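Supplementary notes for students who missed Thursday's class. We covered one full example, reproduced here. Read the sequence, then the structure, then the short commentary at the end.
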Amino acid sequence: MNGIQSALADKANVSKMEICKPAETDYPLQVGPQALGDQLDVFNDFDEGRTFLVDAAEGPDSGDDEQLRKVQHLADLAQRKYDEHLDPEHLEDAIQCHRRVLPLCSREHADRHNALSNLATCLQIQYQQGGDTADLEEAIDHHREALLLCPDDDSDRYGSLNNLAVCLYLQYHQQGDVKDLEEAIQYHKDALLCCPPRDSARIGSLANLSTCLQTHYQLSGDMQDLKEAIQIHEQLLSIVSSDSPIRLISLKSLSSCLQTRFEEGDDIKDLEDAIQYYREALPLHAPDDPDLVDLLINLACCLRVHNEEQGDIEYLEEAIQYRKQALPLLPEGYADRSTQLNDLALYLQAHYEQSDKLKSLDEAIQYHRDALLLCPPGHQYRSSSLNNLALCIKARFEKQGNVKDLEEATQLHRESLTVCSPDNPEYSMSLNNLAVCLTSHYTHFGDTKYLDEAIQYHKEALLLQPKEHIDRPMSLTNMASCLLILHEQSGSIENLEEAVKLLREALMLCPNGHPQRPLTLDSLGTALLNVYEQHSSIEYLEQAIQHHQEALQLQPPGDPAQSITLTNLANCLLSHYKKQGDLMYLNNALQYYREGLLLCPSGNPDHSGSLVNLASCLQTQYEKLGDVDSLKEAIQCYRKALDLYPINHPDRLMCLNNLASGLCIWFRQTGDMTDLEEAIKHCRAIIIVQPDGQSSIRSMSLNNLAFCLELRYEHQGDIQDLEEAIEYYRDLTEILSRDHYQQPGLLNNLANCLQLRFGQQGVKEDLNEAIQYHREALSLCPSGHPDYWMSLNNLALCLNIQYKHQKAVEQLEEAIQHHRDALLLCPVDHPEHCTSLQNLAHCLHAYYQHGGDIKYLNEAIQHYRKSLDIYSSEHPDYPNSLIGLSHCLESQYKRDGNSESLQDAVSSVLKAIHVYPPSHPLLSKAWAILATMYADYYEVLKQSHKVDEYPKFFQMAACHPTATIQDRLQAAFVWTWKQRGSALLDAYATCLQVANQALVFRPSIIAQHSFLLSVPPNLASDAAASAVEANNIKRAVEFLEQGRTLMWAQMTRYRTPLDELETVSPELAAQLHHISHQLEVSAIIPNNSRGMKKQDQERQAAKYRKLAEAWSNLVAEIHKLDGFGTFLQSPRFENLQKASENGPVIIINISEKRCDAIIVQAVSDPICIPLPGLNPSYFEKHATQFSEAVASELVRAAKEDSPAMKIARKTITGVLGALWDDVVLPVVSKLRDLGVSDGSRIWWCPTSSLMSLPLHAAGIYQKQKPNLADVYISSYTPTLSALIRASQASNQDSMYNLNSSSEHYVHLLVAAQPNAPNQKPLAAVEKEVEKIRAMVPAELVSVLFGVEAKYDAVLEKLENHNWIHLSCHGTKNNSQPFLSYFQLDRELYMLDIMQANLPKAEYAFLSACHTAAGDRKRLDETIHLAAALQFVGFKSVIGTMYAMADIDGPVVTEEVYKYLFRHIQREEKDAKDKIADFRDAAKALHIATRVLRNNKVPVERWINFIHIGA
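Structure (token representation):
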């Protein structure tokens, strides 16, 4: 309800309502009576009498009556012929005859009057046909003479008066002499005096007189003429029959007169009567009557005016209907068709503005386009047509936000300006409209060139508008608005001052006494309020208040505008309160809002708006004073207003938004979820009907919806709510400029959500970003800003959380200071006082724990107790204070040993558990706290509490369905630390299960990897060690399988074959396949997506989490099927045992608890070999020594006998010897005891730092000393499941031969890149390829060498080859292992490889550096290039543990392929039946490394090569 209704006003070339022309009357002609009616049959026809006429004309006038009768008869025959054929010759014959009659009738002759009248009538007809003024003048002379022959009582006088008046009216139209018109009016009036009341001729005279009076009114403007014409038409309608043609004419003329009188006098009854008469006339018109078009248009015009006056949209819709009916009736080539199209378009545009129906606007645009086609370049109306079309298209842009519409509107306005001459009165309007469009360009796209251009056009418009110009105030306002925008963009004080100056000039154009001055004052006051909101200068606000107060004084009592002014004044007072905090202003604002409401009683259009404004002020009063009654009244006002607003009212959405805001605040007071759900429903309803991203109401509703979703997440824990809230907040912060007054609140809210998500998922980037946004919000909130305390509070909360993770005490100290400052701004009566107490107490307790100063602990307890005294037990934050107090009391107990403190602490937790709703996310923390207290103080509490139940409480905490995954994980971790006895294995099982669940919902494998870094790396090993301690070796194997390579395990689940499920439930199988594929694609983010916008990343993450939830639910449903109870669950030992079908698997488990080797055999129970004296530090020390020794600069050193290399080699052999003595030898001894013969294959499955050590090469490297390579052929597997998958596939089709079908051939792809960009050349690569060509039949190998070995080509050919040999640079990315890569023409990343799905793939030789080197931070996850090849389907992989020597590649390659294709090389009989078996790769590599050893290659080079898989 602001005074300025539109800061930037478009002005349209609106076609004025077409003035209805008086309906033309067919004037009756008074034909003279026949003198001798019984002599009419003198001649049979005119041709027969023509001879007589000629003879009579040649002879003298005899005055013979017989001759007179004959001539009269001939004249009558000629006139009849004319009436029948309308032939001008017959009319001329009649005139000649009448001329011949006239000399035969002397002045005293009884027939002379008739002769004069008949001749005059024929001359009048001839004038109307030919336009010869001499005919009309002669007719008037004859009518005048005839009138002189008629005394007052003569029966022929009426006819003479009427006919003379008709001719005089015609002469007026021909010559324009008003005396003729006035004389005609007088003669018509005299004629009526001669005509009896019931005479039928009277109808014609009345019609003729009314026409003359209407014409005279148009000349003189004398309302008396119009009044008489209306009275005559009303009299006519009372006497003419319904089928009389005069009735139609009179109805139209009367409507026209009433319409004209309405325009002069503004009496709405005249307009309504005109509409009624037009409606009555409409059915009297024949459908093909050419005059029907004018009637339809005039009726439409009246209906449109009625709509403008009364606001009744039904009249406008009827007008549109008639306009549309008129269009097809316009004749072909109708000159004014473009105007009619334009007028219809304007009607439709008005309908859109009143109804908000986009269909009407689209129709208007189409009609404007049609009109423009009829106005080609040079047409006088082209500029107006362009302008009107542009305005409609711009309106559609404002509705839908389609940039193309704005661009087209701007282009059309530009063209309109070019075709409009600068001296055209409409030129300044065209400048204004173009400037408004350009301003919209800036508003939506932020390019200042548009704003600069708009300002220039506004300046030009103002130059063309002198002070008295009607449009100058509008141009001043628009110019000022642009300057204000420029000020917002640049901060220029000059622009701000110039804007105020222009608005003041606009006020000067409305001096004292000017009827527009009150409104102008009110508008300027509202503009100054806007300036204040941007500039925060109190003088602008005070001036605004002054202007509103003056406007209020100038408005007379009862002025409808007074309510608006009261509201605007209240707006300013409310802003003043928010600025300076003086309650007087708040109270006065509330008073004026109430007074404004009283002036808008129920039924007033502004009543609902006044309710909304009052409610907003009451809500502010609650926020300041905590007056619950004010908030209740505010919500009631919002509800009342909502009931009053029509469904399509433009302000209804704002009211709905405010109601949602009030309900959200009320929920925070009461905790009633129904209020919050209603608020969310209202916000979503607004967003549905406001799809325009730039709409202010949409922005507010998005903000409120995001806040409501944030609250719902806090109370119900649904991560989808939080993700949606973050998305909305991010969108809003981008829409609004950084200096927008709402920006601090939005930044605060976004930061709060990121903080919550950090608590849910533990992603440190979220916390860092939250702190950044809180600091930015605080910088935008100077001291005294309403949001200042909130920014202080929220920043402090984030700093406290950061302190918990980083332990930097300065973060905690800053948090405490901010909380103290916030508390000072929240006195006891402030709604957030208790929140501030809680937050400060939390930080004080943390500071006590850091430094041990008792005063901080005492202060914390004091604040918690005070908050509990203020809160009611139903308040949502009441249990949070109880939890905080319990922590403090526990610390007090630890300090002084007072058992009462401990009892009070436990009681507080129990009370909080009782108060929390069952679904509250924080209930998990409460259960965990209680369980921890029971476990820690078992002996102290066992007499008074059921402390034996603490494992159950831990389990409840870890499995709480709405708790954050971080809280659940933390509870599970603590459980494993606190638990003793048999329940410890349950604790580890729960912990591993929750960790797996947490991983599933991470949106990418990179995010999953980041999450795993926060999980204790020894979790699975500790679980297994605990199982071994409990003598449950099978459970130990299961724990290791469940807790290691979590990412690969989850990704593999997405590729699990579904054949068995499909036979039982094809529908579930199809659904699971579809969702699994989507999850896999989403998780393996392509490398080029790393630069996507934050919002897009979060939308993708939210989509992933929804899919993950759907996947989990679907798997749970599948578990209900018979035989599928363990589907996709962690496998039991009986299934894992299958991994050892082709040889034993040795798991080496490393834990602080104990270290063991577990031998898994095909049929027997697992055997545990304790490794006493070993611990993680032992293996970490050797792993570090080994890693440093094989560093690439040493391995590739030119001088292998250098001192540095000798030292490194000694370290390497020392590590290998230690591994042999402490780990491998006990295993080998046991294997031999079990009957595993020398030369057999064995598989190693190491854990922890042992994964970076070469177990396969363990031994004493001295003469005659044993080493593992001399005993067994070693392979590695990351997990038993991975080996099972490789072995199952290899057992099906392991041998390829030339006699098989083509799909069973070996298809070896060799990709070799010796000269990668920005890399050192690899000289031996070419030789390596030559070795392959020599060993492998040509028909089985495809080679991509050098420039051919391109990224795209390799990925494409991978799909058609089941064997691959890569020879190139390999690079390990230590910070992001999934971004490790092979260097071809560009990087072939691990993520790129993982997108492939190659079920027939079998063998890969990765002749590159670091291809089997895992992530040192998370070795158990086995993240390296070789593992990626395994994931996509390769069952047998040769790789390297670190940087390889280039010269070793050809040697190893030759020996490997020599053995794999040995049947061909030996030219055996059955060579064609036995080409190659990829299962031989391990032995082939074993032989190759033996060759290197025999060639005296140093140990650090040959132990680099390892085999993984089947």
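Commentary. The first helix runs from residue 46 to 58. The radius of gyration is 50 Å. If anything here is unclear, bring it to office hours.
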